[in-house]
Amino acid sequence: MFERPRTSLPVLALLLLLPQSIYVIGDYLAIGIRFPFFRYQMALQGMGNGTEAFWRVSVILVPRELEYLTSGIIRWQTSTGQFNPTAIATLVWLAGLAVLILAAALVVSWQLLGNDEQAPFPGPLLILTGFLFLVWAMVQYGPLFSGPGGYSIPVGVPLLWFCGYQFMQAAKKKEE
């Protein structure tokens, strides 16, 4: 199915553009959708001192996530000295994004440039990306994707795994 550019490149574009996770922070203090390169988040604001509450919408790009980590907005350690799960989860997400970009580059090289020696790599890399995005949800919200910090539904992970498997099958066919 994915051995021809006319099918594999649109599928790759979908993987780069479709949401990977839907999440809720705390007791609905914020809700959002996480895409590979950004997250769309609505956070409840203005609930103190008798002010009226409202939803603030944010689009948080990858450079902003990195800024949160490097500037200390997301601290590496909690007040008790433990590692902050949000910081670790953000690093895991960024690692998954890096693997996804590498897989995309290899698919483009394989399909558009005809580098058949690249064929075996995108499938396992997409499966690894799915696992890293799943680990992100487990680190952030707990092993069952739910905890006191909120919950997450990793909607894009099955699609990553399916496409990774399909790319592996296409590479196997190419070898034969």
Low-confidence stretches: none
- Shape summary: elongated
Q: Could you tell me the mean pLDDT?
A: 88
Sequence of secondary-structure elements: HEEEEHHHEEH
What's the helix count?
5
Query: Oligomeric state of the chains?
Result: single chain
> Over the alpha carbons, how many angstroms does the gyration radius reach?
19 Å
- What can be said about the biggest beta sheet? 6 strands, antiparallel
Cα separation of the termini = 15 Å
State which percent range the strand residues make up: 15-25%
The side-by-side strand order for the widest beta sheet comes to: 4-3-2-1-6-5
The percent of residues in helical segments reads 40-55%
Structural class: alpha+beta
Strand elements, count: 6
Give an account of the 3D structure.
The chain is an alpha+beta fold and 176 residues long. It has a domain at 5-18 and 62-147 and 156-175. The protein contains five helices and six strands. The protein has a six-stranded antiparallel β-sheet. A hairpin with a 3-residue loop joins strand 2 and strand 3. Helix 3 (85-112) runs antiparallel to helix 4. It is elongated, with a radius of gyration of 19 Å. The model has no long low-confidence stretch (mean pLDDT 88).
